Amino acid sequence: MTAIPTLVGRGVRLEPLAAEHAPALAPLVDAALWAGMTTPLPDTTDGMERHVAGLAARPGVMAFAVVDELLEPGLVVGMTSFYDVDLRIGRVEIGHTFYGRRWWGTHVNPAAKLALLTHAFDGWGVERVALRADARNVRSLAAIERLGATREGVLRSHRLAPDGSRGDTVYFSVLRDEWPATRASLEARLA
Rounded CA gap, 58 and 54, in Å? Predict the structure, then answer.
């Protein structure tokens, strides 16, 4: 896999995730925000450093710190990533995403997703970008639908939480021929 690029979007910058981002990211998470995630709650700097290191060690993952450049320029407000990157067959997933609650409903998520989707479709030339969320995470499911992704289905008992409980995963995707309409919709939201 290639080096992780810095992606610049409309009011956000996605920079390669590093341990130096952990002190800013850890205070953004809490148990309720992290519910449905498959990794332990990283609500301390050490915990977030372990989380960041775990992502960096996974093959096919390109993780980013999301930096606000509009409301509070230069402030790290969350993270996101490409994962299950398989450019040979033209597919990638976007996930491992969270933002501090103060940035929910702002430009941050649509701008970050626009930057990621643009890189995937226009930079890499992929045919499919998938997104997924825990079936209980109503807020994330609604956010993915607002992006213009198509709901594909539910994988039952697909997720394993740190406490050993199991959850369902809802899958969405954007295909290459849907990308122009999705891009236009995101650009209109950010205008």
Answer: 7
For tokens 């956000």, name the residue: 12
Phi, psi of 152 (to 5 degrees): -100, -35
Q: For the beta carbon of residue 52, count every other beta carbon within 10 angstroms.
A: 21
Helix, strand, coil tally for the chain in percent (to 5): 35, 35, 30
Q: What 3-state DSSP class applies to 109? A: helix
> What pLDDT digit, counting tens, does each position of 8-55 carry?
999 999 999 999 999 999 999 998 888 878 888 899 999 999 999 999
Tell which residue, 2, 35, 1, 12, has the closest CA to residue 190.
Answer: 12
How is the chain split into domains, by residue range? 7-190
Query: Residues 6 or more apart from 149 whose CB is under 8 A from it?
Result: 131, 172, 173, 174, 182
pTM tops 0.90, yes or no: yes
Token pair 């941050």 is at which residue?
108
Of the CATH numbers 3.20.20.20, 3.40.630.30, 3.40.50.1950, 3.90.1640.10, which one belongs to the domain with range 7-190?
3.40.630.30
Tell whether the torsion through CA atoms of 62, 63, 66 and 67 is positive or negative. negative
